[in-house]
Design a protein that fits this description.
The complex is a heterodimer of chains A (396) and B (201). Chain A is built from ten helices and 14 strands. With 396 residues, chain A is an alpha/beta fold. In chain A, strand 2 and strand 3 form a beta hairpin. In chain B, 45% of the residues are buried. The chains are: A alpha/beta (396), B alpha/beta (201). Chain B: This is Methionine biosynthesis MetW.
Chain lengths: 396, 201
């Protein structure tokens, strides 16, 4: 089973994402003015007449806006289907939930696949570098467009948590509650290192063509697939891999060694290999390599303390936002120690902060999986914050 | 809610900012929030308790008295509460200092090691006392810094803390009637509770 041998849909089937086109565009931190700005998004539930029940959910590196509905390209359920919906922890009977594709993404929001107004051609590898602040600024335009002054909550895991923190830092008056999950206030050297390996895998692909692969009707599927395989390992844990696959060998017709062939070093395949290859090959069908590079770079740049005179408390001083920081015990990509750093900074800022480490052996991806304690934490924090908000509204 | 928690709650003014260090299942902060409109937050060392509290919508963070008080700015809270925990922290004096740095008042309760039953047991058996309050053997007890009511008063004097209010209570939390005599309270009080503030400069 070779990744490059799999059928690949270069641009995916044509699908109309729900998108808002903002002619005013966006001034990026790098100085480029991006216009127009398109933001693709999904919403669930109903915005209250007072417009005070909106929850923005921010997706992770390879996620998208299809939070709680079938994905139009993969046909799979939404990535947080089990968390967002009527009666679920993020209850769409009570809250108006918004999720948008990040700036630089490839699911309808302006990104490397978009047309550059100046050249009339797709940006591709010429897409300007973006930061977490740019990503959040683009979301803020969408929130403006939806007529929402203040978000009741911003919630996100992993890179989504970086966005939740950035929202609280950049727009303190517009965020009543923030829930950064399995995340960090800075991207660690180890994580930058992993991203760099991912990027080098893409650059090494003969189909990369200096990022102009679409001009050649190609995509660097092998490189992007390897990038995904490597990254996927970092989302799991040794324990989870052992439990799920152990050292089992996969025996099926597709991978069996043909009778005629001589014994070969790679004649058999461990189940974990097969799993990773599947992860790689399915990923390249829905994700664009230039988007992957653009967004991983935005994560690498992320360091809230460095931007605020080296003190992580600075962006949160006088913050009225209620925070709930969540980490997972076996997450080694965004370990609890980094969440604790964040919590201490929030304490230094005098902010209202809850902090829970959820016991789980499933690594970073635990935030996407069935973890009853995590579900209870999200539900409890949101309900507690809502009660507090109602109390404040009653006083006002 | 335990009776001693109710006594603590009575010491706290409505709408105050409160940090409960060792908030357990969150009973006290829940009570203060609901009945006194306090901005009450908790720090708790036991993760089960933390999860339970946050799942109930209470602002509680995982942490402990020895390591997590130093982060807060001066005067963040009106009251900082430490219930039945002082004897189990690594550095009781430093914890008290931090409490009175980040809060205007500190409310501290601890089991009194001067209680007559403990004295008698040590005297008659020559072994470490074991009672309902001091129920774990010396080699596995988390209570590494036991003190008596008089010990605590000496520390307060050394540190320049003003004892605004104090009371001795029995294990069930009922107020004990030795309010005028420290000597008697130290002999008959199973638990002690203090409301402290810094001396005016």
């Amino acid at each position: 089973m070779d990744i490059s041998a799999l059928p690949i849909i270069a641009d995916g089937p044509v699908h109309e994402h729900r998108t808002v086109r903002l002619e005013g565009g966006l001034d990026l931190e790098c100085g480029v003015h991006l216009a127009p700005l398109e933001v693709a998004y999904c919403t669930y539930g109903t915005l209250s007449p007072a417009r005070d029940n909106a929850i923005l959910v921010c997706h992770a590196l390879t996620g998208d806006q299809y939070l709680a509905e079938q994905h139009p390209l993969t046909g799979k359920p939404g990535w947080w289907n089990r968390m967002v919906g009527p009666g679920l922890p993020i209850d769409t009977d009570r809250y108006f939930v918004v999720c948008s594709n990040v700036l630089g993404g490839c699911m309808g929001t302006t990104g490397p696949r978009s047309i550059c107004a100046e050249t009339g051609k797709a940006w591709d590898s010429a897409f300007p570098p973006i930061t977490m602040h740019d990503i959040v600024a683009a979301q803020a335009r969408l929130i403006d467009h939806l007529g929402i002054d203040r978000l009741f909550a911003v919630i996100g895991g992993s890179m989504g948590g970086m966005q939740a923190l950035t929202w609280a830092a950049d727009f303190p008056d517009r965020v009543f509650a923030a829930m950064p999950i399995a995340t960090s206030p800075f991207h660690s050297a180890q994580n930058i290192a992993f991203n760099e390996v991912s990027r080098q895998a893409i650059f090494a692909d003969p189909d990369w063509h200096d990022g102009q692969y679409r001009d050649f009707d190609a995509i660097p599927a092998r490189g992007l697939g390897v990038a995904r395989m490597m990254a996927h390992i970092t989302y799991l844990s040794e324990e989870a891999l052992s439990r799920k696959f152990g050292r089992r060998i996969r025996h099926d017709a597709a991978t069996a060694v043909p009778a005629s062939s001589s014994p070969s070093l790679f004649g058999e395949m461990f189940e974990v290999e097969s799993y990773l290859r599947h992860q790689g090959s399915s990923f390249v069908r829905r994700f664009d390599a230039n988007s992957y590079l653009t967004i991983t770079r935005a994560m690498d740049y992320f360091d809230l303390a460095a931007e605020h005179d080296g003190d992580l408390a600075n962006p949160f001083r006088k913050s009225q936002t209620r925070f709930c920081v969540v980490s997972f015990s076996s997450d080694w990509l965004f370990p609890t120690s980094q969440s604790r750093l964040l919590v201490r900074a929030l304490n230094r800022a005098g902010a209202n902060v809850s902090f829970v480490e959820i016991e789980s052996d499933r690594g970073h991806d635990a935030f996407l999986l069935e973890e009853p304690d995590f579900d209870r934490t999200i539900r409890g924090f949101i309900n507690g914050a809502a009660e507090h908000a109602a109390l404040l509204a009653g006083e006002g | 809610m335990r009776v001693d928690q109710r006594l603590i709650a009575e010491m706290i003014a409505p709408r105050a900012r409160v940090l409960d260090v060792g908030s357990g299942d969150g009973t006290l902060i829940d009570y203060l929030y609901r009945t006194r409109s306090c901005d009450a937050r908790g720090i708790e060392i036991d993760m089960q308790n933390v999860t339970q509290s946050v799942a109930h919508g209470l602002p509680v963070m995982h942490g402990d008295a020895d390591h997590d008080l130093a982060d807060y700015p001066d005067g963040t809270f009106d009251y900082v509460v430490l219930q039945r925990t002082l004897q189990a922290v690594e550095r009781p004096r430093e914890v008290l200092r931090q409490m009175l740095r980040i809060g205007r008042y500190a409310i501290v309760s601890f089991p009194n090691f001067g209680h007559w039953r403990l004295r008698l047991q040590l005297l008659t058996t020559g072994r470490m006392p074991m009672t309902a309050v001091w129920s774990t053997p010396w080699y596995s007890t988390p209570n590494i810094h036991p003190c008596t009511i008089r010990d605590f008063l000496v520390l307060c004097e050394e540190e320049g803390y003003v004892v605004q209010q104090w009371l001795a209570i029995d294990e069930d939390g009922a107020r004990a009637p030795w309010r005028r005599s420290i000597r008697l309270a130290n002999l008959f009080g199973e638990q002690a509770m203090f409301l402290l503030r810094r001396a005016e400069p």
